[in-house]
Automatic annotation (TrEMBL):
This is Uncharacterized protein. It comes from the Bacteria. It comes from Actibacterium pelagium. InterPro entries: WD40/YVTN_repeat-like_dom_sf. Residues 351-371 are annotated as: Disordered.
């Protein structure tokens, strides 16, 4: 295990050497009929692109809704423009502090409700015209087996999709457990089909999950450890499994995503105005490591507005468009924000000797404890 002094030094370095990410922000355009209020997200948690990348879903935590945005993208004079073509707000009585979300297919989503259960919703086939519409619930899953209840589900990731079955790797935030309930699907009929407890050892509020589709590597944001835990393969997860590696040097990791065939990973830091970036060309992710780079994607005033405590203020949700061209981050006070991924990575060369100003950046928890 890495020495505590190394953790402290790594955390301080990622904050003080943050690369300017705001210069890589996309311009957000709204279609006719949409006002700026449409992207006033209030408190959000996870976000997720649909498989075809035409829709992004955002968990409306305090409003007990799912926000759906129809989007398009283009480059104008070399600058990325993300256009919000339409919006829907989904409601259902079983939405209770929705925290995690993932697409099972283009019209079906899994939602993890922090104050409720894991539910499967059918998206209404209506125009994205700004209306609020009820969603149809196809399934509500309360437990894996009789003695294993799915309580306080947070982030969720769809995996092991077959013709008739799929699994949902689910962080049970306040149970310090990651579960993997399995489902049988026959059209719109979704039935419980077993499952297992996937992880327990070392879990301290698991708060985000990503599974690499190419390598089946698993990454879990471990909130109170201030780290991301990495596991070699989804099939190897066991309650007592040890991680093959850890990503350190951040405040409170939240949403995260593998990309580039599992060789890269981005994570939102809820306790800092940053997203962190790691690269491992082997895609094995062995050992402990600090960020390859950290990008400042929020200005001082926006971060301060959400700084209710040392665990808040920064971005919560993050997802990378299927094309790899841009990512979206969501937070209460910044709202809907998008960033050009190639430009962000290019900043590593242009800014590596010119870090962004850091006098207002928070200390990591480990660094604060050492002072």
């Amino acid at each position: 295990m890495v020495d505590m002094i190394e953790i402290i030094e790594a955390g301080a370095q990622s904050l003080s050497a943050a690369v300017d990410g705001l210069s890589s922000a996309a311009r957000i355009e709204l279609a006719d009929g949409l006002s700026s209020e449409a992207v006033n997200l209030k408190r959000t948690e996870d976000c997720r692109f649909s498989p075809n990348g035409k829709v992004i879903a955002v968990a409306g935590f305090l409003t007990d809704t799912i926000l759906l945005f129809e989007i398009s993208q283009q480059h104008v004079a070399g600058n990325l423009v993300v256009r919000i073509e339409g919006k829907l707000t989904l409601t259902h009585p079983r939405l209770s502090r929705p925290h995690g979300i993932d697409f099972i297919d283009e019209t079906t989503i899994a939602v993890a409700n922090r104050d409720g259960r894991l539910i499967i919703l059918k998206l209404p086939q209506v125009p994205f015209d700004g209306r609020t519409v009820p969603a149809k619930m196809l399934m509500r899953r309360k437990r894996i087996w009789m003695k294993h209840k799915l309580k306080t589900p947070g982030s969720v990731a769809v995996t092991r999709k077959g013709r008739f079955t799929y699994e949902l790797l689910t962080c049970l935030n306040y149970r310090n457990t990651v579960a993997s309930p399995r489902f049988l699907r026959l059209g719109d009929l979704h039935l419980p089909f077993g499952g297992r407890i996937a992880l327990q050892r070392g879990m301290e509020i698991p708060d985000g999950v990503s599974i690499c589709p190419e390598t089946a590597r698993v990454a879990i944001s471990n909130h109170n450890e201030n780290a991301i835990r990495l596991y070699s393969h989804y099939d190897d997860l066991r309650p007592n499994a040890h991680p093959v590696g850890r990503l350190l040097g951040m405040a409170y990791p939240h949403g995260l995503r593998f990309f580039d065939k599992g060789r890269r990973l981005m994570a939102a830091d809820a306790g800092a105005p940053l997203i962190h970036y790691w690269r491992d060309d082997t895609a094995k992710w062995d050992g402990d490591r600090t960020p390859t780079a950290s990008f400042r994607i929020m200005d001082k005033e926006t971060f301060a507005a959400g700084r209710y405590n040392d665990q808040e203020g920064g971005p919560k949700g993050i997802d990378i468009h299927p094309s790899g061209a841009f990512l979206v981050v969501t937070s209460e006070h910044q709202g809907f924000a998008a960033f050009d991924v190639p430009k962000l990575l290019q900043r590593l060369e242009t800014d590596k000797t010119e870090p962004a100003a850091s006098d207002d950046l928070p200390e990591t928890p480990a660094a604060a404890a050492a002072t």
